Amino acid sequence: MIRVLGLDVSKSSVSACLLTEKPIQPRQFYYECPFRCLSANSAGIKQLLELKPDIAIMEPTGTNYSKIWGTHLARAGVEVRLVGHKELRSYRQHHLALPDKDDDADALALACYYFDYYQEPRRFVQIRDLTIVRIRELVLRLAHLNRVQSPIVNRIRQDLAWQFPEVAHSQSRRSNESDRVPLLWGWLSRERQSKRYDLLYSQTVGLGINDTVRYHAERLCNLQREECAIEEELNQLLADARFEPYLKVFHKFGFGQRISAILISQIYPLSGFLAEDGKPEVKIRKGRNSKKPTKRHLSLRRFQKALGVAPSLEASGDIKKAKIVGGSDLCRIALWQWVFTRIEVKRSRLKNDIGETLGEKLDTEKAAGRPVKLVRMKIAAIATRLLFRELVKVLE
Fold first, then answer.
1. For residue 87, what pLDDT is reported?
2. Which domain holds residue 188?
3. Is residue 129 over pLDDT 90?
4. What is the gyration radius of the CA atoms in the chain, in angstroms?
5. Angle between the N-to-C axes of helices 329-338 and 130-163, in degrees from 0 to 180, rounded to the nearest 10
6. Which of 238, 268, 287 is the endpoint of a domain?
7. Taking 50 as the threshold, does the pLDDT of residue 326 lie above it?
8. Are residues 20 and 96 in the same domain?
9. CATH of the domain at 186
10. Which of 91, 239, 334, 380 has CB 3.0 to 4.6 Å from 259, enough for a Cys bridge?
11. Cα angle: 78, vertex 83, 89; to 5 degrees
12. Where in 213-337 does DSSP place strands (E)?
């Protein structure tokens, strides 16, 4: 008899529902089930493990709240599976007809979900190994650090506009030396020396640098050092031999370290998108409008969906529109930025068939007067199709 534990994770606790079989009447069972609320402390973890589950089902609630529960369960030899938020919501409402959403209802729905779909692996979020999990944590941390730095940089520049206007809009980037912070921020925090900035400051028309700017510059230097440490760890993780063919393809697309890490964290292994025979899954179905046999590239669709560039069609009466729902926001933003910097800017355009193909399509779309934001996302979607085909080719 298998013991399935549904866990709905909150900030500092979980609602737990242990089942050995799916209840015949889930709605009635909801009012009778002995749900447990376990706190995120040593007593809560002990009570969790005392339930002796064989399988635990959770939602992928970020990398923070669910991490402690998933890690302790995995260490105890419990299989952990994840169910997407959208899938769980639909299942709870339409299949179980449970009351309004609450933590206990979600815990029960998660446990029931396993009994209905345990033989369909695609119904669950892909389980990533520890290396992929760590890469994902690091790219999310880099994205966070980028968001944190922007308002600090803006505040410094606004203050420098009247304290030291000659350098208020100077670009300061990290050098190739991993232990060196950007020169301007290092000079402002008195961490680095610069004769050029010393000379400019001696002749400035500004009112003088105050301690607030120096404190902000010191914060930026610390954040930059943290970025360096993360990038160094990412380099070591990406050196894994399993990623070599992926990185080889990424190089053809001109993806840098950060976008490569983001993509690896989302699409590895590629086999998760393919059919059981290891080939792209393609089915022929009758077209809704044409009524003719039409190819459906299911593996490609799943791949693009994971990267956040697959539009979903919404139609009501005479109104039809497509919008992107689901997928990785981080991937979508990274691909949009890549199109903007490596395809749209002609002097930076890739000097290969990929750059030429995408560049020509982008130029044609812009010349036709289409909205530039829409054009960039369209080119990103085309790029992911090319990327999928190149990965399939190199991994055959």
1. 86
2. 132-238
3. no
4. 26
5. 60
6. 238
7. yes
8. yes
9. 1.10.287.4070
10. 334
11. 140
12. 282-286, 293-297, 311-316, 319-324
